[in-house]
């Protein structure tokens, strides 16, 4: 009755619509549906300049989050406010905890607001790990075929799910529109400098260039970048091992010191 009077959708309707828009298998809970409805209502009052809106919109699109920038920011605000409301019972029971709750609310806001950026970086990193193999495949395919669409479709079958989804969207764009526009949309969605180099090479192939030498040089550059990345990861390992080695050393020393202390105390007890 209240939902009809206020002209808001039922929880079942909101959950069904949100589940249809999900790409994962996780189902929407009642709390998420309520927070989303409140976010949509609050998004009308969120001020946002054009630059910030366009930047956040591009980030949300790259991360695969189907929200408007205002709704996304309102979603983060409502989650932070929900945690901040716990201050009221804390003031009545134990006032010192109220400060911790306020800090927790601020952390929740920044965590929710940066979720799209973190997802985009994770997605970009997963795609960039496949670019070396992608470039090598293009280099070999160009020796026998100049059809960029067939090259993308054949590589889609062997790559990771994230990159396969992006290639699938690009292939659909190629069939419905221009090849160059579809590749430029792929570049804008992923927003990766390495993928931008690959897209420029594919566009040059579409325009009639040979492209084999370009992708050979690009493959060499990507190999060097991958080696530098692996070396950087390897250099971080000794520091982590050193920390645990010190902890083990302290444990061994503590064990010996405890045994010596027990023996000394027992010997003193026997003497007295």
Give an overview in words.
By secondary structure, the chain is an all-alpha fold. The chain is built from 13 helices and no strands. Helix 4 crosses helix 8 and helix 12 (193-206) packs antiparallel against helix 13 (212-271). The chain is flat, with a radius of gyration of 28 Å. The N and C termini lie far apart (85 Å). The relative contact order is 0.06. The mean pLDDT is 82.
DSSP helical segment count: 13
Total beta strands: 0
Strand content range: under 5%
> What Rg is obtained from the alpha carbons, in whole angstroms?
28 Å
Report low-confidence residues grouped into runs of 5 or more: none
For the record, give the distance between the C-alpha atoms at the N and C termini, rounded to a whole number. Answer: 85 Å
User: What structural category characterises the helix and strand content?
Assistant: mainly alpha
How many strands, which pairing sense, and closed or not: the largest β-sheet? Answer: none
Mean pLDDT: 82
* Proportion in helices: over 70%
Strand and helix order: HHHHHHHHHHHHH
Shape: flat
């Amino acid at each position: 009755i209240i939902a009809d009077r206020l002209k808001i959708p039922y929880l079942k309707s909101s959950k069904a619509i949100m589940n249809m828009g999900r790409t994962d298998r996780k189902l929407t809970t009642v709390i998420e549906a309520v927070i989303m409805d409140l976010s949509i209502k609050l998004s009308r009052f969120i001020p946002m300049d054009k630059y910030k809106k366009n930047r956040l919109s591009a980030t949300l699109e790259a991360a695969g989050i189907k929200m408007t920038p205002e709704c996304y920011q309102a979603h983060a605000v409502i989650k932070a406010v929900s945690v901040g409301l716990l201050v009221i019972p804390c003031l009545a029971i134990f006032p010192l905890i109220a400060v911790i709750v306020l800090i927790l609310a601020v952390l929740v806001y920044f965590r929710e607001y940066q979720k799209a950026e973190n997802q985009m970086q994770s997605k970009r990193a997963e795609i960039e790990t496949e670019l070396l193999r992608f470039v090598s495949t293009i280099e070999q395919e160009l020796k026998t075929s100049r059809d960029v669409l067939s090259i993308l479709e054949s590589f889609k079958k062997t790559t990771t799910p994230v990159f396969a989804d992006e290639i699938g969207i690009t292939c659909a764009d190629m069939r419905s529109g221009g090849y160059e526009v579809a590749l430029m949309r792929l570049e804008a969605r992923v927003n990766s400098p390495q993928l931008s180099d690959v897209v420029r090479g594919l566009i040059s192939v579409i325009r009639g260039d040979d492209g084999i030498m370009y992708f050979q040089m690009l493959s060499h550059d990507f190999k060097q970048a991958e080696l530098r990345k692996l070396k950087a990861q390897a250099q971080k390992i000794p520091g982590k091992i050193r920390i645990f080695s010190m902890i083990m050393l302290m444990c061994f020393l503590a064990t010996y010191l405890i045994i010596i202390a027990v023996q000394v105390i027992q010997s003193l007890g026997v003497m007295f």
